[in-house]
Design a protein that fits this description.
Length: 262
């Protein structure tokens, strides 16, 4: 039967605490010694018991030398990292460099295999080929799914823009209809004024012609204007509203001229 798991909490019994402290301290010193010997590391271990008693261990170098090196390394926080790197053994760098080269080569081979290069595939076994095929199929499925998402998003965006354009066109159409309606209303008002003026002139032109033969030419011109106004009144529905305005002004000018002469 194995040992039960010890719960990590403070031991309340002082005797049990002291016994556990002694056992764990011995084990800790043993591990520190092994680390110093096996890895040629400089290890400094400082322990104070609950009663304040000091226990220490130094491996590789003396305690004072290790503490001095620690103080020098941590004296300036900005220089702590460069000093640490300078203190590293070149063997550590060489081991890390070898590992990085191996990892880089592995990634390159994996990339060539995924690209389907024949030279890279020839070295694979059947199991590796099956595994690679599954990875490729999984990648293709992810790609297709992403494509469908993008297509759906583009379709939604196109529909939204089309609806906005339709609403804008409808708004512009209504504005144009309002402008046309206002223009026709203005045209009708001008026609009524022109008709009223022509009627007034028609009622009085015989009297004016009998009283003063000197203005016969002017009366003929006003009569021609009246006829043209009548003609444009019947043609206003064919788009002659702008011409009506001009003829109406001619009628008013003629009437004012007659009033001045008389």
């Amino acid at each position: 039967m194995g040992r039960g798991k010890i719960e990590m909490k403070r031991i309340e019994n002082s005797t049990s605490m002291q016994v556990t402290f002694c056992k764990r301290r011995v084990g800790l010193v043993k591990k520190a010694r092994e680390l110093s010997i096996l890895c040629d590391a400089h290890v400094a271990l400082i322990v104070f018991s609950s009663s304040g008693r000091l226990f220490e261990y130094a491996g590789g170098r003396s305690m004072s030398e290790i503490l001095q090196a620690y103080c020098d390394a941590t004296h300036n926080e900005d220089r702590s990292r460069p000093i640490f790197h300078e203190a590293k053994d070149t063997t550590d760098f060489e081991a890390e460099l070898v590992y990085l080269k191996e990892e880089l080569e592995r990634l390159r081979k994996e990339g060539r295999r995924r690209n389907g290069e024949t030279a890279a595939l020839e070295t694979l076994s059947m199991e590796e080929l099956v595994r690679l095929e599954g990875e490729v199929e999984s990648s293709l499925s992810s790609i297709r799914e992403r494509q469908e998402q993008l297509r759906a998003r583009q379709k939604e965006e196109s529909v939204r823009k089309e609806e906005e354009l339709l609403r804008e066109n409808e708004k512009l159409r209504k504005e144009v209809e309002e402008l046309q309606r206002a223009r026709w209303q203005g045209c009708g008002l001008q026609m009524e004024n022109a008709t009223s003026a022509c009627s007034s002139y028609s009622a009085s032109r015989e009297e004016m012609m009998d009283s003063d033969d000197h203005h016969s030419d002017t009366f003929l011109q006003l009569r021609a204007c009246w006829k043209r106004a009548e003609e444009y009144r019947w043609k206003s529905r064919d788009g002659a509203e702008f011409k009506i305005y001009g003829e109406t002004w001619m009628i008013w000018i003629g009437i004012l001229t007659v009033n001045i002469w008389t």
